[in-house]
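Title: Prediction job returns without error message
Component: structure pipeline
Severity: low
Priority: P3
Assignee: unassigned

Description:
Job completed but the reporter wants confirmation the result is attached to the right record. Sequence as submitted:
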Amino acid sequence: MAFDSDLAERVRKALTGRAGITEKRMFGGLAFLVDGRMFVGIRESSLMARVGTERHDDALAMPHVRVMDFTGRPMKGYVYVDPPALRRPEDLSAWVTRCVEHVSRLPAKNGR
């Protein structure tokens, strides 16, 4: 499955100056990771956003945000953000910042 390369470039731009960011093809798209943990990804033309379980319902209440269920069941803590919610650079930047900050606050995984 392909991903929107223009959206990928916009995410890269929103991440300018942040340390520890890598990219990896996964989930049939492209994932962005901080210190080895995915915080956003791109699948087709939607942003996969890791918002955390505590902000999951709030995120779903926002326009053009839907349940992330590509495995056939909803993934709590992750949502899809569709293109209309990402048109303005500041909107995309807000999602990226929200997600990278959430993942950066998570406790370290065992062995790291």
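Comment from assignee: result matches the submitted record. The mean pLDDT is 93.
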